[in-house]
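Entry for the shared binder. Reason: the reviewer on the internal report wants the predicted structure included alongside the sequence.
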Amino acid sequence: MNHNNSNLLTWVVTVGMVLIVIGVLMPVLGYSILVARWIFCAGAVVNILGRIFVKYTGDNIRIKRLFRLEFWSAVFFCASGFFQFYSPHTSDWLAFVLAGGAILVYTSIMIPRLARKTGEAE
């Protein structure tokens, strides 16, 4: 994959994450819950599409596993979007958002740390 595709995929994942954050914060700030659900789900779909195409091309197996964990966080966000429509009066969806967020916090700390340790940091 060339550098331009990598930058584009990074932007796609970032836009997805911003839409997810907006979808979570809208009900808290008093906006329409129905609109927030659709924005959240759009962000989850954009995020998972970006994560599908982001590939780690190095040799470090631990970093490769962390990239796979990032994909699973996107799966959790999609499951959260499902539960927002399937059982809208419960907070089941929030558990999946928190699980996906916790995974992203962990991977965002560990990937740069391992890349720096192995000399793969750009």
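Summary line for the report: The two ends are 16 Å apart (CA to CA).
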